[in-house]
Amino acid sequence: MQPLKNHVTLVGNMGSPAQITNFDSGAKVARFQLATNQYSKTGNKDPEWHRVFAWGNLAGFIESYGDKGKQLAIHGRLVNRTYTSKKGNLRKITEVEVKHVIGL
User: What domains are there in the chain, each with its CATH number?
Assistant: First the structure.
């Protein structure tokens, strides 16, 4: 049996322009939220929000193409991380690291 792999594919709309961070090394990261539609049993369309980030050339593409409402198809992997909030509380979040992106 082949081992399971960590793959995520989402098609949705950007909630706002990406936040771009440029590092002294020349690396770049784009962080944004992507809304996908979840349909309830009554047929209502409820957005589900996903935290997303991309590095390098993908970050550059998202910086130039992406804006609030733009539709993207992304493929990547889930990443879990922890950080300490300003109040000193330990927080855990799950994000999607983009490996491929298509602007629709």
Answer: 8-103 (2.40.50.140)
| Closest CA relative to residue 75, chosen from 10, 12, 14 | 10
CA-to-CA distance for 49 and 57, rounded, in angstroms? 24
Contact 104, 71 (CB under 8 A): yes
- Asked whether 94 and 24 are in contact (CB, 8 A), the reply is no
The pTM of this model reads: 0.83
Q: Which helix (H) or strand (E) holds 68?
A: none
Per-residue pLDDT of 5-34, as tens digits, reads: 889 999 999 999 999 999 999 899 999 999
